[in-house]
TrEMBL record:
GO biological process: thiamine diphosphate biosynthetic process; thiamine metabolic process
InterPro entries named in the record: Thi_PPkinase, Thiamin_PyroPKinase_B1-bd, TPK, TPK_catalytic, TPK_catalytic_sf
Keyword ATP-binding: yes
Residues making up the signal peptide according to the UniProt record: none
Organism: Rhizobium glycinendophyticum
Every Thiamin pyrophosphokinase thiamin-binding domain range: 142-206
Keywords: ATP-binding, Kinase, Nucleotide-binding, Transferase
Annotated GO MF terms: ATP binding; kinase activity; thiamine binding; thiamine diphosphokinase activity
Protein's name in the database: Thiamine diphosphokinase
Amino acid sequence: MTPSSFTILLGGHLTVTDRLKALTQGSRAIAADSGMRHALALGVVPELWAGDFDSSDASLVAQWPQVERRTYPAAKAATDGEIAVAEAIARGATRLIFAGALGGERSDHALQHYLNALGLVEDGFEVVLTSGDEEAYPFADESQLELELPKGALFSVLGFTALEGLTIRNARYPLTDFSLAFGSSRTISNVAEGPISVSLTRGRAVLLARPYDFSGA
């Protein structure tokens, strides 16, 4: 990892796996409110802890007295996660890892992480969202993803718009220059034959991979 890679610790579920450790190795870190609870398991010390602290209890705060805290009012115009991302960008981030972005108790927050990530990709940032069990890679117009997956692992392509020129290679259900209607489930539950390649001519999408799930094999 280069100094431009930042891990944003978010409040959703997080399973620490070998892939997650490799993904975040050497990355700088910023915690968003209760996302700080993942720091110990990941073995990172965030350089900033930001949010309104409505979901961080006193014991968590007491555990990290050395970390700079930046407190915001509860009545604010952005989520704690978005504030943490903005802080990372202000510190020079070009690659962002949203750890704890998928699942959790708040589905509205999880969906907002997807939307925020898609906007960041359009602005030229590299973004990965992860729960450890799942990994999400947003991509948009004229882009291509190459992803190392074990043979038999499940993955899906979620279209956040209609998609044009969608190509999926090295999968059980390949596609070439395919037009996917908005809302279609055609690209859900595919199976990797090993490392996969996904490219797109036009549209906004997220590749959601389950590298430890072989139920479709």
